[in-house]
Amino acid sequence: MKVLHVESGRHLYGGALQAVLLMRGLAQRGHENHLACRTGAAIGTAAAAHAAVHELPMKGDVDVFTWWRLRQLIRQVQPDMVHLHARFGTDVWGALAARSEGVPVVHSRRVDNRERRWVVRWKYPLYDKVVAISHGIRNVLLSEGVPPDQVVCVHSAVDTERYQPNAPRDSDRAWFDAQFGLQPGDLAVALIAQFIPRKGHRVLVDAMPAVLARHPNTKVIFLGQGPQEAPLKQLVAERGLQASVLFGGFRDDLHRVMPSLDLVVHPAATEGLGVSLLQAASCGVPIVATRAGGIPEIVQPGHTGELVTPGDAPALAAALIQLLGDAPLRERYGQAARQWVLDGFSTRSMVEGNLAVYREVLARRGR
């Protein structure tokens, strides 16, 4: 089978990482991948071992020429299937290009925000199938009127061989402490997400005074990048939290960073599923997060972590205080989180799930 994947993101996280894992799995099974991506995007380099990479200008929703460029590429590649992995611009232009050339098209939906009814009625008939990465996202689509037989849930995956718990070696934590300027005995808590409002950084900042009153050796590390970074740094300074809230930037070595964390926190207002949460769980790190989107499909309260209501800073602080004060509980949650990922979020199950969708669509088309 020949599949043309379309991903317009600049950076290699979230959906782009999932697309690479899928292409790798498909290639291992003997299928042929092609990738259309934005010129200079990080995914192009990451996918080169698993796909023929075609870099194109992609300028978002208003760039009608994206439709023409993708249509020309479809004519050139002659794929059996077009799989759209991104939203901005390519979810519509890519679908129209595939339809123009009579090629089946599948769209991966990775966010749980609602769309306007007229958008849903117009856009979703363009796709042969929609792959929701969580049951939470699927439920949102169904509530908006997308037919049940058009939407299937295939969970995102994590590379459990790359993201593993550390062996109990002092050198691992010593390296970690040196990277972020921590002292022996500090408790390391990370929020790993883009600096955008819905990820909940400000809620965590609001919770920090209560946490520090009980656990003054707590260090919160913001890992990521995005448009809200400067305002967040200003907020941290205004609250006098510079010594306890650190900005670690975007890291491409999270597989080495995560196992040394004591806790991962994710106070998002909305979240499709949360790839960073899967990675943390795979590393055996307990999680405090919110009951938003697909997060409850990863974080099981009282088993792999704790959940609070989005936007509730006091509840977030209470959950953090509890876990930071109980090392055996963190260890127990972390072990359970690792097993939860191994059982339900393997790369193999994600690849097979998408392949099943492809085969169903092709069978309906008589191919």
Q: What share of residues is helical?
A: 40-55%
Do you know the CATH topology of the largest domain? Rossmann fold
Q: What's the end-to-end separation, in Å?
A: 11 Å
How many strands in all? 13
Average per-residue pLDDT, rounded, comes to 93
CATH homology group of the largest domain:
Glycogen Phosphorylase B
Strand order of the largest sheet: 3-2-1-4-5-6-7
Primary descriptors:
2 domains, Glyco_trans_4-like_N, Rossmann fold, elongated, 367 residues, seven-stranded parallel β-sheet, EC 2.4.-.-
Would you kindly provide a brief summary of this structure?
The protein has 2 domains: 2-157 and 346-364, 3-Layer(aba) Sandwich (Rossmann fold), CATH 3.40.50; 170-344, 3-Layer(aba) Sandwich (Rossmann fold).
Could you explain the architecture of this structure?
It is an enzyme of class 2 (transferase). It comes from Aquincola tertiaricarbonis. Its EC number is 2.4.-.-. Keywords: Glycosyltransferase, Transferase. The chain has 367 residues and is of the alpha/beta class. It folds into two domains: 175 residues, Rossmann fold (3-Layer(aba) Sandwich); 175 residues, Rossmann fold, CATH 3.40.50.2000. 42% of the residues lie in helices and 17% in strands. Helix 8 links the parallel strand 8 and strand 9. Helix 3 packs across helix 4. The longest helix is centred in the C-terminal third of the chain and has 18 residues. The protein is elongated, with a radius of gyration of 21 Å. The protein starts with a strand and ends with a helix.
